[in-house]
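Morning run. Coffee first, then this:
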Amino acid sequence: MALAVLSLCAPGRATAQQVRPPGMPGDTVVLDPLRQSYKAALIELRDTLSMLASDASMFRQDLAGVGAETVLSRAEALNGSCMASVALLREAEPVFDPSRAANDRVRNESQAFLSEMRSLGRTLSEYCLTGLALEGPGVRADSLRAWGPYYLRGVGLAVQAYYAAAGEFQKTADFKLQPPLPK
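And here it is:
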C-alpha cells in the first residue's frame, strides 16, 4: 500500500478535470492522477477498516460465554487490525495533503478530512491499542470482557465520523467508490 499510495503522490498539482477518452460510453469516467490517488487511498482505508469492524464483531460475539483463551485470541486479532489501521492512516496522510488540492473547496475539505483521519488514529491508539492490549493489570481476559465493549463503542463512533468525512471529501473531490463507503 505504501508504495502504491506514495507513488501517486507526485509533486505538483493535477487538474481536477474528468477526462473522457474518445469512443467510451458517457457514463465511463477516467479520473485524473490526483483523484486516482485519493480513490486508491480511500479504497485501501475502507478495506482495512472493514477488517477492523469484522474483528471487532468477532471480539464481541458471545463475549461472556467464551473462555479466557478465546477472549485473548480475539483481542490479539483485533489489536492487529488496529495496528494496521493506525499505520495505514499515517501512510495515507500525504495523499490528502491540502497543498495538492486542485481548488479551494477540495483544499478545505482535505483539511477537514485529515483532521478526522488523525482523530480516528488517536482513538484507535487510545482505545484499541492501549485499552485492548493483551498485557495489562489483573486477569486480562476478565478486564477485556468488562472494558472491551466500551472501547469498541468509542472506536465505532470514531469510524462512523471518519466515514462521514470521507464521504464529504469524496463528493467534493468529485468521484465515487464502488462499492461505496459504509454509512
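Residues 65 and 160 are 28 Å apart (CA to CA). Good start to the day.
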